[in-house]
């Protein structure tokens, strides 16, 4: 029996079927997996570390695309020792350009080339699904579902609930990852994540409270998206600006880097905490970064022959739409020079555009994550009559 078949058979034996992912710690799926491990791992846990490392490295190098990438996830599902070894071998998207585990969706994208995805919109249900791949026509059934969002109407504005699952949008579920909320006019959006930022926030004692709440109900303001009002009703694309509260401007300066989260905190499980930051809970506090990264939409040019505004999407966008945009780093903010290298100022960090009816492409790269990029693109779907 080949090595690949051994891993697949072991993967089925512990009951992990369908679309592959490692459940966040603290979830019911994770608890079930732990129970199965105790019954099945005895014959696998005693493998010599050198042999185990060689097995996982060979599988990881051979399977770089989905659905073959499931074999790598299967290795991490065998037992604890296999999982730890797999986590050491598999690199973060910033270095590998690959999405493997759910935590990859919270990690920054690659620096060299963008990760290419597409979004499907279901008008009847108000659900938006993010897939890994070039387009539905090219990827077909091999498309990997990354994230889903459901639009919820509120009296004060719209809200998009983002989930790791295609159908589970409950905020108490372990699949819940964050949300996007707009104001009444649809000119300002706030991105919330249910995981705390990695940077150290030293808040004074007066800004700390001690409610004992579940981590699934926590919300952290990680970004603000602002659309400029079009009072004169002039023709042209929307103007937008994104303030990334969880990403410092130093991340894109020379020699800069950003810390990547390596695992989810416990979700959907009540846990007593002695103190909780003012920024957590549903209080909407913002992070304490003095100089956050600011993104702005790249200015298009007017094409005389086509009589329309144009941007170079390099073949990734084929249908003209007011929703289409490209985001680059803002070189200056409020009259202050941000010391961003010239090549970084021209580099497109996120681009989004239409390629068919209810089909849109989304390409993102370092320093934003798939979740942050998806949330920014969701803001473009909301109706904005005062901005057009």
What would you say this structure looks like, in words?
With 388 residues, this protein is of the alpha+beta class. Among the domains are: 46 residues, no CATH class; 212 residues, Alpha-Beta Barrel (Tubby Protein, Chain A), CATH 3.20.90.10. It has nine helices and 18 strands. The strands form four sheets. It has a twelve-stranded antiparallel β-barrel with strand order 1-2-3-4-5-6-8-9-11-14-17-18. A two-stranded antiparallel ribbon has the order 7-10.
Main attributes?
388 residues, alpha+beta, Tubby Protein, Chain A, 12-stranded antiparallel β-barrel, 26% strand, globular, F-box-like domain superfamily
| Sheet with the most strands: spatial strand order | 1-2-3-4-5-6-8-9-11-14-17-18
Top CATH class of the domain at 115-196 and 217-254 and 289-380: Alpha Beta
End-to-end separation: 62 Å
N-to-C series of helices and strands:
HHHHHHEEHEEEEEEEEEEEEEEHEEH
How is the biggest beta sheet arranged?
12 strands, antiparallel, barrel
Q: pLDDT under 50 segments (min length 5)?
A: 13-31, 200-216, 268-287
At the fold tier of CATH, the topology name of the domain at 115-196 and 217-254 and 289-380 is: Tubby Protein, Chain A
Helix content: 10-25%
Q: Which descriptor suits the 3D outline?
A: globular
Report the portion of residues in β strands: 25-35%
Count of DSSP strands = 18
CATH architecture of the domain at 115-196 and 217-254 and 289-380: Alpha-Beta Barrel
What oligomeric state do the depicted chains represent? single chain
The number of helical elements comes to: 9
* The CATH superfamily title of the domain at 115-196 and 217-254 and 289-380: Tubby Protein, Chain A
Please state the CA-atom Rg, rounded to the nearest Å. Answer: 22 Å
Structural class: alpha+beta
| Mean pLDDT level | 78
């Amino acid at each position: 029996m080949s090595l690949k078949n051994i891993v697949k058979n072991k993967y089925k034996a512990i009951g992990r079927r369908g679309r592959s992912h490692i459940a966040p710690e603290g979830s019911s799926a994770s608890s079930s997996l732990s129970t199965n491990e105790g019954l099945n791992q005895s014959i696998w846990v005693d493998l010599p570390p050198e042999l185990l490392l060689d097995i996982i490295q060979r599988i990881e190098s051979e399977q770089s695309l989905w659905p073959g990438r499931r074999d790598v996830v299967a290795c991490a599902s065998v037992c604890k020792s296999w999982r730890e070894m797999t986590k050491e071998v598999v690199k973060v998207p910033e270095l590998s350009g690959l999405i493997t585990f759910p935590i990859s969706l919270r990690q920054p994208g690659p620096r060299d080339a963008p990760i290419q995805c597409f979004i499907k919109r279901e008008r009847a249900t108000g659900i938006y699904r993010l897939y890994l791949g070039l387009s539905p026509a090219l990827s077909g059934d091999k498309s990997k579902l990354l994230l889903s969002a459901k639009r919820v109407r509120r009296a004060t504005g719209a809200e998009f609930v983002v989930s790791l699952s295609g159908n589970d949008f409950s905020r108490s579920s372990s699949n819940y990852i964050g949300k996007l909320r707009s104001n009444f006019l649809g000119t300002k959006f706030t991105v919330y994540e249910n995981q705390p930022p990695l940077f150290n926030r030293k808040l004074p004692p007066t800004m700390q409270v001690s409610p004992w709440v579940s981590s699934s109900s926590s919300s952290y303001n990680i970004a603000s998206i602002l659309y400029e009002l079009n009072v004169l009703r002039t023709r042209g694309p929307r103007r937008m600006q994104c303030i990334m509260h969880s990403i410092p401007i130093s991340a894109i300066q020379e020699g800069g880097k950003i810390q990547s989260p390596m695992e989810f905190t416990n979700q959907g499980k009540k846990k007593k905490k002695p103190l909780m930051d003012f920024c957590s809970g549903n209080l909407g506090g913002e992070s304490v970064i003095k100089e956050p990264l600011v993104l702005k939409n790249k200015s298009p040019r007017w094409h005389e022959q086509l009589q329309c505004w144009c941007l170079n999407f390099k073949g990734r966008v084929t249908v003209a739409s007011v929703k289409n945009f490209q985001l680059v780093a803002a070189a200056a903010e409020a009259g202050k020079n941000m010391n961003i290298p010239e090549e970084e100022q021209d580099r497109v960090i996120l681009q989004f555009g239409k390629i068919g009816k209810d089909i849109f492409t989304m390409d993102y790269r370092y320093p934003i994550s798939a979740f942050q990029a998806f949330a920014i693109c969701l803001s473009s779907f909301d109706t904005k009559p005062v901005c057009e």
